[in-house]
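Late entry, written up from scratch paper. The run itself happened at the end of the previous shift, but nothing got recorded in the book at the time, so transcribing now.
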Amino acid sequence: MTQRHARRRSRGPGAWGLEPVAVAVVACVGATVVGAGPQSFRARVDVVQVTVTVTGDDGRLVRGLSRDDFEVFEEGVEQPITQFTDARVPVSVGVLLDASDSMRGRALDDARQALDRFVGQLRPTDETFVASFNHRPRLAGAWTSPPAALRDALAELVPAGGTAIYDALADTARLFERRRHVRSALVVISDGADTASDRSLYEALEEVRRSDAFVYALAIDAPDALASTRVNTAALEELTALTGGYTEVVRSAADLGPATARIAAELNAQYTLGYDAPRPPDGSWRAIRVRVRGDEYTARARRGYFAVRRPIR
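Output as recorded:
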């Protein structure tokens, strides 16, 4: 499918100069697709949907489990699972690339190639946006389906400036309020510590946990990097663990291809569980824990959701 056939949904000028960044809080974990058409997507907190990744002791993805293999708890109380699927359902995926001065040369070329392959590995029914950041975020391609239409979206990118990763994460998290699909993920690639954000790590965490997206961070930690500018893997691990994603440290941008392929494989192997919310929406944060029965496997999922009923368009 060529670029001109792609479904691209621009929304006019906004906080990025290209895309509006809505500030409404949405209970995306509790979102359910309703209505007749693909554009229908309204949040329902009465049914809480949770995306889950399951791995074995060796780290390999585990498929073939059934509803009875899972337990889900809200605020420590087990909830009956009323919905379940192990089918690969469509996903909304954001891509965020560090374009600060330290990414000049081969590092940027390798990162662009890895991301181009990654969006090509997504399904035509998925959607994606592509963005970059240095001291400010820039949207290179708004939500688009099929994702392959955004290959080469970063072809003209020229690295410069500092690294404001916390600001970029907070701003891109808000784009998920306008996504099409319940299941969502954000892939961020960076090679340096935050040097230019106005927001703190914890302010970024607050925005990210409202987005319902699994966050995957690929940290380029070159052996010869200066200690003062080396990527803060501990901060990224704290953020990604909250969302159900993970942080992977690679030694060079040349390793990004296999790393993004692993993320694509995980998106193809996730489960979706649903349960009836035990209380009406009241705006509160509600903690979630998902387990696989027994001790053989480990489940990764978001740690909670905001119980707010709000439409998503």
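Residues 91-267 form a domain with the Rossmann fold fold (CATH 3.40.50.410).
(Scratch paper discarded after transcription.)
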